[in-house]
Every structure is written in C-alpha cells, then in structure tokens.
Design a protein that fits this description.
Layout: H1 22-33, E1 40-47, E2 57-58, H2 62-69, H3 76-83, H4 93-97, E3 107-110, E4 116-117, E5 124-129, H5 130-135, H6 137-161, E6 166-168, H7 177-189, E7 194-195, H8 198-204, H9 214-218, H10 223-233, E8 239-241, H11 247-255, E9 263-266, H12 271-284, E10 291-294, H13 300-308, E11 315-318, H14 320-323, E12 333-340, E13 343-344, E14 359-365, E15 371-378, E16 386-387, E17 390-394, E18 397-398, H15 405-418, E19 434-436, H16 438-449
Helix pairs in contact: 2-6, 6-7, 6-13, 11-12
Length: 450
C-alpha cells in the first residue's frame, strides 16, 4: 500500500485555472454550449458599502491579481478531472475539451493601486468574451478584497501613529501563510515602515525588522544571560524583549549592557505607564539613544490614545488587528455584469441595485488640492476631473510595466494627504460625495421601464 505524502495547498501556476467557484465553470461551459462564447461582456468590480468605522478604502492587490489571472490555465489532466464531476458527466466531451484553449485574452481597466476609493464607484472593469470574463471573477475578488481591506486598516493606523514608524508583525496570525505576504505588502503600501516576514523582504524589498521571542529568554538560566548573549551576537543592532518576567527589571538589565543596545520592546501590559517608566530608567543609565518599541494587540484606536497621551514610544509593532482587520474583517466587493454586446445589464435586487453600461470615474479637487467629489459616468462621456480607471491589460497582456511598490506607496501617501481632513478621523462618517451621471441615471430608468 503506497504511503500518502502531505499535500501543500499553495497553488502552483498550473492550478490557477481551477481556483474558481464551480458555478463559474458551469456557466462557462453553458455559454460554450449555447453559442455565446464570442459575446463581448463588460464586468465591473466595486464595493457596495464601507465596513463599520471606515470613511474610505485604499485600493490594493492589483499587481498580484493581474499576474495570476494572466497565468490561469486548464491543463489536460485538470479537464479530465472535471469530466468526472457530476455536473459535467453527461456533457459531450468535446465541450469540456474546448477549455484546453482557454486563456484570458481580454482587457482590464483599473484604478491605480494606492488610490483612495469609495463605495459605489468602479474599481476594475473587465472586457472580454463572456466565458473568459466569467472565469476570472472568483480569483479577482479574492485577490483584491483582502489586500484592500488590510491596506485600508493600515492607512488608519498610519494616520493614528502621527509619523511614528509602524512595523507589520502579523504573519503568524494571518488566515493562512499567504495572507502574511499579502498583508505585509498592503501594510507597507499604506505607510508601514517594515515587516517581520522574511519572504516579504526577499520578494518585495520591504525593510525587515525583528526582535526576539520570549523563548530566547526562557532558554537561558537567567534573563541577563539571555540579553548579554543576544547583544553580543548582534552588537549595536539588538532589540531586547523585556517583558518575559518583570518589565522594569528587564529594562534595568537591558540598560546595563555594554555597548548600548538598539532598542527594547514591551509586548504586554499598560504601555503608556510602562513606556514612561522604561524611558526614565534608560535615560538614568545614559541610554537616551535606546528606542522603545511597543506591541501587543495594538489597533489604530490604542495607537492614537498612546500618541495623544505623549507616551515615549518610538515605534509600534502591529499583528493580529492588522492582518485580520478584526473589527471589520469582510469587504462587500462584488463583480457584476454591466454590458453585453453593447446592451446595458443591471440588477434590481433590494440593496443590490447596479447601474448598466461600462463606466469611468472622475475625481474633482478643490482649490486646495483636496478631493471634492467623484462622478461615475458612462465610458463614452466626458466629465470634469481626473479619470481614475487606466488600461492595464489589453489582449491578455500587460500594457506596461507595473509601478514599483515604492511608487505605489508614494501614491497612497499623496492620496491620504488629499483627503478632506475630517475623513481622516478614526470615527469619521463617510460623507464623501459619489454621484452617478445623468446619462447613467437615464440608462437605468430606460432599461427598468423597458
């Protein structure tokens, strides 16, 4: 009897074609069988409503989403596996065989990564033959929704930190290993200074940061031995975790090390009081240059309170609250058909109404350069303001090299600076004006009446 080996669930490039919902495949095959394979479809991605306590979102995840969508394939062995499913068992084998030639060969328009966006406005538009456009729905939503959620949370934290550096420590708390990579990228994009996840540093060039774990301290007979050994191995660079046993005693031992260490980290307790006591101890030991980093279930509200109180904290490490966006862990991002062969398509479901026709979004600014309002218009309309959607894929190929992560980060910073000041408050309501053009409203009325 052969031995079963462990199976990794990280999809390889050859697996991406099946990283979709079953009903996408049944619809694709149905379109082929119904003679609809060449009908040109326009689908759009937008967010229906903001999560609780959010006044804006930061769009993220586009580069990786496009890389994967353009690599989607259905190999012969995958198609043979599909033939064994009940849904396809009675089909003419030739119909499924057509999937072997499938590639995404359409066009994609998207808002640039790092852009501040709002509910109801088109973020991505997919234009492709109907089966191809249907195929990529599940993957695009999954690949864009989570990074946008994390980038939006990270931006709130960056605003709360008021210039103090933030470090992403969330890989171990993420919903699966890949979440750590996506979160590290989205956090850096939105203003974080670095990550603890080594692969994110290698693959994405994000600055790496690290301290030590409690296990290092526990592995030695005495805390001072653990500190001295670590500082000796990493002279001038060591950050010592001082709260394994007693915080202030840990600070005293860290302050006594020669030469001086780089920083201490406090990971628990009342961070305001402990950071003040730690700063006092360090200064009295002539360690004014030793920085204080704090972590431990921090979110934007806790960070803002510590900053407002003047706590002498030089930087924050953030993990679970960022990587899970625990206060608002889901995003109502949807992918809807808006046009087929030039004919508008829409939904009238309660709470889920959509507008027909392919669209562009125009953003106006006031005389101070602040965002003043967005107009969602038909693609063939001209309007005042900056058009947000850009062509990124044509004929199944990228139209240009994607911007570097550094440029996306710079765009996000500029976008946040251009937000109306009141929207940056952690308790702000989303009152930013997003309106639909008269032409779109007229199209919707005409189709409803017809």
């Amino acid at each position: 009897m052969s031995r079963r080996e462990p199976v990794s669930l990280w999809p390889g490039e050859g697996d991406l074609g099946l990283m979709t919902d079953l009903y996408q495949l049944t619809m694709m095959v149905g379109y082929l069988k119904s003679g609809m394979a060449e009908r040109r479809a326009e689908f759009e991605i937008f967010v229906r409503r903001l999560p609780r306590d959010r006044a804006y979102l930061v769009f993220s995840g586009l580069e990786q989403a496009l890389a994967d969508v353009l690599s989607m394939r259905l190999s012969a062995d995958r198609i043979e596996w599909l033939r064994g499913l009940p849904a396809f068992s009675r089909l003419d084998p030739a119909i499924l065989g057509q999937l072997a030639d499938f590639r995404f060969e359409g066009a994609i328009w998207a808002v640039p990564e790092g852009t501040v966006v709002f509910p109801g406005e088109t973020l991505v538009r997919v234009s492709a033959p109907l089966p191809q456009a249907q195929w990529v729905e599940t993957y695009l939503l999954a690949a864009l929704g989570y990074p946008t959620l994390v980038a939006s949370k990270a931006a709130r934290m960056a605003v709360a930190a008021a210039g103090r550096p933030l470090y992403e420590f969330g890989a171990r708390r993420g919903h699966g290993p890949q979440a750590g990579l996506l979160a590290a990228r989205s956090a850096f994009l939105a203003g974080f200074a670095g990550t603890s996840l080594v692969e994110a540093g290698r693959r994405l060039g994000i600055p790496l940061v690290g301290t030590m774990g409690h296990s290092w301290v526990q592995a030695f007979d005495r805390e001072d031995q653990a500190f001295a050994a670590y500082a000796d191995i990493y002279p001038g660079r060591a950050t010592l975790l001082v709260d394994t046993y007693d915080v202030l005693e840990g600070v005293r031992k860290a302050a006594a090390i020669e030469p001086a260490i780089a920083a201490i980290r406090i990971d628990s307790g009342e961070l305001d009081l402990q950071s003040r006591a730690a700063r006092d101890l360090l200064d009295r030991h002539d360690r004014a240059g030793v920085k204080i980093l704090c972590s431990g279930d921090l979110d934007e509200t806790k960070i803002a309170r510590l900053v407002a109180a003047g706590a002498p904290i030089d930087g924050f490490g953030v993990g679970v609250e960022l990587v899970t966006s625990r206060d608002a862990p889901a995003l109502s991002m949807v992918y809807k058909l808006v046009e087929l062969e030039g004919q508008g398509k829409f939904k009238l479901s309660p709470g889920k109404r959509t507008y027909p026709m392919a669209k562009q979004v125009y953003r106006r600014r006031d005389h101070d350069g602040k965002f003043a309002g967005d107009l969602v218009a038909r693609l063939d309309e001209k309007a005042e303001g900056e058009p947000l959607l850009e062509l990124v894929v044509q004929g199944g190929r990228p139209v240009r090299e994607p911007p570097s992560l550094a440029l996306v980060r710079e765009r996000c910073r500029d976008q946040l600076e251009a937000l109306p000041d009141h929207l940056l408050a952690l308790d702000a309501r989303c009152d930013y004006p997003v309106v639909y053009s008269d032409q779109l409203e007229a199209d919707a009325r005409r189709l409803m009446e017809g």
